[in-house]
Design brief:
By secondary structure, the protein is mostly beta strands. It has six helices and 75 strands. Strands 11, 12, 14, 15, 16 and 23 form a six-stranded mixed sheet that branches.
Length: 932
């Protein structure tokens, strides 16, 4: 039992030593995530906690923390800044990890942007050392982005690339075509060793004022009832309207309609083109005048909202609203007819149109209906009729009503009127006390007034008078010049006409706004009004510090002028200055600034390009005398810095080059000998771009490929935007659909991008015969992968052999010689020779190279029977056959010789007879023997 208790105790002790987590009372330390510029996301996480930029975590020392920083596409990640300096060293990867120390720390990602600028038509953008760059120019053409032009690859100068946009656009217009005034987008590309490494789309926009001006796209598209409207476009000569309708889920395109006003009445369509119940929408393009060499058509507008559903309407208008004929006097001549117009304003047909005149005086007018149609079929179809008063009507007013009717139409009524007047003839002398009579009928037209009604005094600047106020009277009385009242000579008292009361001279206030008068102690004004000698109150001078004619220095007194607003002046001595303060300043490198002496140096800032060190030196007292700099590869104490003797004098900036470590020390002295020393943090300059090997940019592969990435300060490596983990500097890219992007960046922001395609196996083409087959050798068929260009081959079987020499040979028995036959099969493929299907012994022929050459020996040929034989030359590719004919010996040669005892006299007699016959026939043709 004791042993069991002891075992349990030992196990508990062992568990207490290995279980994770802080022990009882263990301290937690704060990790603060400071925000960073040019990043899209910055996070830190542990196995149990996580935070984003601007937040904090309380962690135990020894906790593993994983950092991730995602930067915008136009920026480079450099490294991590840690406070307090030197508290922690973190790998410069944008995705990395570290172990939490036993102290509070804060972390910030260090990221710099790629900046493009345009000034006076010159585009400049950041250079990457050892890289070439080019710019491509695009323009948005309605719904697509269209390439316009591109520069050649260019070298950097002074840490940047530059391109003269204005000159490029002018050359394009001169040599290619005119361009519209528009906004153009710049795409930047970086190349190394002829390979595209990085690209930045829409880096900056440039507005070019071209020779062509694109009209503005129409705006404010709207329906007012069924009238489509939009705001007029300046310099537009016409508009192209695209009309669509929608009903029951289906859409209809009504085509393009050309208009010359910024509106379109839907009812202008013919009735059979309208769709009752449909909703209509439209888009508009503004057009310049035809053959315009200045303006271009606009982009298409946005689509309008839909109209209300189109109703079925029977409607019409009759214009004008009324006919009022000009008043005429008695005895007037014939009048011109006036016209009423009937318009179909509905969506249905106006049938059985009728027109009539009604009213008491309808017989005093003539209605002409000869041009009126019986019906109006379509929307906006019109017809007309005229009305005219009869001639010879007596004095009086004549009225009638024109009535228009049609099927399903409420009768439309329009009034007509005409007045015949009696007009008096008279002359008026302009005197209201004289009566006026009509010279024709003698009737009193204007009665006489009993007297003139005179107005109150009227006046101008010089005279006064009274005028008759009766209508039409021009009588005037008592016209005379003003009589001013006495002037007391005081400008503040007005002067009036003693008759009509007109103010001949207005009162004034004293004008003390003129020039000052002054003496040594006071100043005052004299009234500026003509003839006035009054002055205002004298006042003591008010002195205001004015121009310093001689500034005081830290070596002698100065002098300053004090002025009074009246113009008086005096000189005041300014005492000599005393300077006891040291000058101040700041160091600027990129976006980093320092203005004090740092005792703790961390080499945590990374740059990939030559950096300009800018220094500002200030001394508000005696002024800056000189500025010095010293470059160290380590941090110095204040005492070491104060004892330096090898300072270098400079003006305001200098450059530090890549592939070195720096701490920049600056010493500033003023005119009286005060000095101060400030320094930067530790800087690492690295311009070596990561190397990607194992693949070629733009290449296509048909199987997984291994990629090697190498760099002394390698940061993050991504595949298709996702970070990958390297093993011994390598990772594998597996087949996937479409192009895949490899990107690598080091801690200094040097980066490289490659794009490849990895397919899942080859896809072979139909192949082509690269080596034709023969009887002697196989042919070759080559297949090529349509993706990567790899190839494979297949054999093509040999052709069947044949006899190429000796075919149809003839041999004459008894003639010496041989016969030769040649097969086009390879000599190495030879098997045997047959005659009439029987294999010949090698002793019957000679065999030689030159394809396959078989020479039949004379001894064998003499054994063959007369007739046709079949020769076979057998090889691995088949049998080549030839025919040969064996003939008997010539017949003369076959006759028995004289004295041959075996034949006797009869043979001789027969022979002589035969000879005679041969001689008669002209002889015997001897066959020639064919042979080798």
């Amino acid at each position: 039992m004791k042993k069991r208790i002891l075992s349990i105790f030992l196990c508990l002790c062992l568990l207490m030593t290995v279980l994770p987590g802080p022990a009882l009372g263990q301290n937690l330390y704060t990790l603060t995530l400071r925000g960073g510029d040019h990043i899209s996301l910055f996070t830190a996480e542990t196995d149990t906690l996580d935070a984003t930029s601007g937040e904090s975590l309380d962690l135990a020392a020894g906790t593993e923390v994983r950092l991730s920083c995602y930067v915008y596409k136009d920026s480079y990640f450099i490294g991590w800044d840690v406070l307090p300096a030197g508290a922690l060293t973190i790998p410069d990867d944008s995705a990395t990890s570290f172990i939490m120390p036993a102290k509070n720390i804060s972390i910030k990602p260090n990221v710099i942007p790629i900046i493009a600028q345009i000034s006076d038509g010159i585009l400049t953008w950041n250079a990457i050392k050892d890289y070439k760059s080019k710019v491509a120019i695009y323009v948005d053409d309605e719904f697509i982005t269209k390439f316009l032009m591109a520069s050649d690859e260019m070298e950097a100068s002074g840490g940047s690339y530059s391109f003269d946009l204005q000159a490029a656009f002018l050359a394009y217009e001169e040599n290619v075509e005119k361009l519209p005034s528009d906004t153009y987008s710049m795409y930047l590309y970086y190349y190394k060793d002829g390979q595209l490494k990085k690209s930045l789309e829409n880096a900056i926009e440039y507005y070019y004022t071209g020779q062509l001006i694109k009209l503005a796209a129409p705006t404010n598209l709207r329906w007012e009832g069924f009238l489509a409207k939009w705001d007029p476009v300046e310099n537009a000569a016409s508009y192209s309207l695209s009309l669509d309708s929608e009903m029951g889920g289906s859409q209809t395109d009504h085509g393009i309609i050309t208009l010359f006003e910024p509106q379109f009445n839907l009812f202008d369509l013919r009735v059979n083109s309208l769709k009752i119940g449909a909703k209509y929408s439209f888009r508009v393009v503004a057009n310049p005048a035809e053959n315009s060499d200045i303006y271009l058509c606009s982009d298409c507008s946005e689509r309008s909202v839909q109209s209300a559903p189109l109703p079925y309407i029977i409607g019409a208008t009759v214009t004008p609203d009324e006919l009022i004929f000009e008043e005429k006097g008695e005895g007037y001549t014939e009048l011109s007819p006036q016209e009423f117009t009937i318009r179909n304003t509905g969506t249905g047909q106006l049938a059985n149109l009728g027109v009539s005149l009604t009213g008491t005086n309808s017989g005093s007018f003539i209605l002409n209906k000869t041009s009126t149609a019986a019906s109006l079929q379509n929307k906006n179809d019109t017809t007309s009729f005229t009305v005219v008063p009869k001639t010879g009507l007596a004095e009086g007013t004549y009225e009638a009503t024109a009535e228009v009717s049609a099927d399903q139409l409420t009768t439309i009524k329009k009034p007509i009127s005409f007045t015949v007047l009696h007009t008096h003839t008279y002359e008026d002398d302009g005197d209201c006390t004289t009566p006026v009579y009509c010279s024709t009928c003698g009737e009193l037209v204007i009665p006489a007034k009993s007297h003139h009604e005179l107005s109150d005094w009227q006046h101008d600047h010089t005279n006064h008078w009274k005028k008759c106020t009766n209508a039409g009277c021009v009588h005037t009385e008592q016209l005379s010049a003003h009589t001013p009242s006495p002037d007391d000579g005081d400008c503040t008292t007005p002067v009036y006409c003693s008759v009509c009361g007109y103010m001949t001279t207005a009162a004034k206030t004293h004008d003390f706004t003129g020039a000052y008068l002054y003496d040594g102690d006071n100043h005052w004004h004299l009234c500026a009004n003509e003839g006035c000698s009054v002055i205002d109150e004298k006042k003591a001078h008010t002195w205001i510090a004015g121009t310093i004619t001689k500034s005081p220095t830290y070596f002698e007194d100065g002098e300053q002028v004090y002025n009074c607003l009246c113009g008086a002046a005096k000189n005041v001595v300014l005492p000599q200055l005393i300077d006891t303060n040291a000058p101040t300043g700041s160091i600027s490198i990129g976006t980093h600034n320092w203005n004090s002496f740092l005792n703790t140096i961390t080499f945590g800032l990374f740059f990939k390009e030559t950096q300009t060190v800018s220094v500002t030196a200030n001394d508000a007292e005696s002024g800056v005398d000189k500025t010095y700099y010293y470059l160290s590869d380590r941090g110095l104490s204040e005492e070491e810095a104060a004892n330096l003797t090898s300072w270098t004098v400079f003006s305001d900036s200098f450059n530090i080059d890549p592939n070195h470590n720096y701490v920049v020390y600056i010493k500033i002295t003023d005119q009286v000998g005060n000095s101060s020393i400030i320094n930067s943090d530790g800087l690492v300059l690295d311009n070596i771009v990561p190397q990607i090997s194992g693949v070629t940019d733009g290449a296509i592969y048909c199987a997984a490929v291994a990629v090697t990435v190498s760099d002394d300060h390698l940061g993050v490596v991504t595949l298709n935007g996702e970070e990958v983990t390297l093993t011994d500097g390598k990772f594998t890219i597996n087949p996937n659909s479409g192009e895949q992007t490899i990107a690598a960046a080091d801690k200094a922001g040097n980066s490289i991008t490659l794009k490849i395609t990895v397919n899942d196996g080859h896809r072979w083409d139909e192949g082509r015969e690269t080596t034709p087959p023969t009887a002697a050798a196989e042919g070759v068929k080559t297949y090529t992968c349509v993706h990567c260009g790899a190839s494979r081959t297949e054999s093509i079987a040999k052709l069947a052999p044949n006899i190429i020499e000796g075919q149809d040979s003839t041999y004459e028995l008894g003639a010496s010689g041989t016969l030769m036959f040649r097969s086009n099969a390879a000599f190495a493929d030879f098997i045997s020779v047959t005659m009439d299907g029987n294999t010949l012994s090698p002793g019957n022929y000679n065999l030689s190279d030159g394809s396959i050459v078989v020479e039949l020996k004379e001894e064998y040929l003499e054994t063959l029977a007369v007739g046709t034989h079949l020769l076979g030359i057998h090889s691995t590719g088949g049998t080549a056959t030839a025919t040969l004919t064996v003939e008997a010996k010539d017949k003369l040669d076959a006759l028995p010789k004289l004295g041959d005892r075996s034949m006797g006299g009869w043979w001789l007699l027969g022979s002589l007879s035969a000879i005679g016959i041969f001689l008669i026939l002209g002889g015997v043709a001897r066959r020639k023997r064919s042979g080798a």
